[in-house]
Amino acid sequence: MKNILIIDDDIHIGDMLEETLTKKGYGVRRAYSGTEALLVLSNSKPDLVLLDLMLPGLKGEEVLPQIKGIPVIVVSAKVDVDNKVDLLLGGAADYITKPFETKELLARIAVQLRSAVSPEVVSKLEFDDMILDMNSHIVSIGDSNIKLTRTEYAILKLLMQNPSQVVAKSLILDRISEETPDCTESSLKMHISNLRKKLREVNNKDYIEAIWGIGFKMRTE
User: Fold this and answer.
1) Which terminus, N or C, of the chain has the lesser number of Cβ atoms within 10 Å?
2) What's the CA gap between 208 and 135, in Å, rounded?
3) Residue 119: predicted pLDDT
């Protein structure tokens, strides 16, 4: 059984969601504030989170960066496009606007649960002619192995795990902090510059591109 955490202070919407999800065979837990949500998450790991933004105490935007390794669908009455973009770049897997059709929400939940892959299952990441082996921590392009620092490796792994997405600078710092606590906002640019140079030296190809004012992504052109 897949378990879903509903983080919403609206009792009526929460009850409706719980009833709908339970009928579909999901296990459901509830949290009514951002602080309560973090407490629940510290003791259990659901398969998916439905997150409202307008919460008492900690807002949804503050809770989102603290949810690690779990797909989050933001469920909010906010319809501002920039707000949606910021949340998606900040780690949300999807965004649905209130009011919504339960059929659509269930479809979005099914997609996220189907595509969620445990990191332990995947041992190698591939992009173009580059391979990153997560067991040996070896990065290779063709027959050439590239020697990377711990920080460069962590950055490249994150970008290759999200090859079609722009990864915001703040998200990079947040996601690699456990592996590389030495990387700071001021040094991130230098680490990425060195990483791009090392990859470019193999075959004069740029694998990473900077998206001005947002972050970085794998170059797909």
Assistant:
1) C
2) 23
3) 46
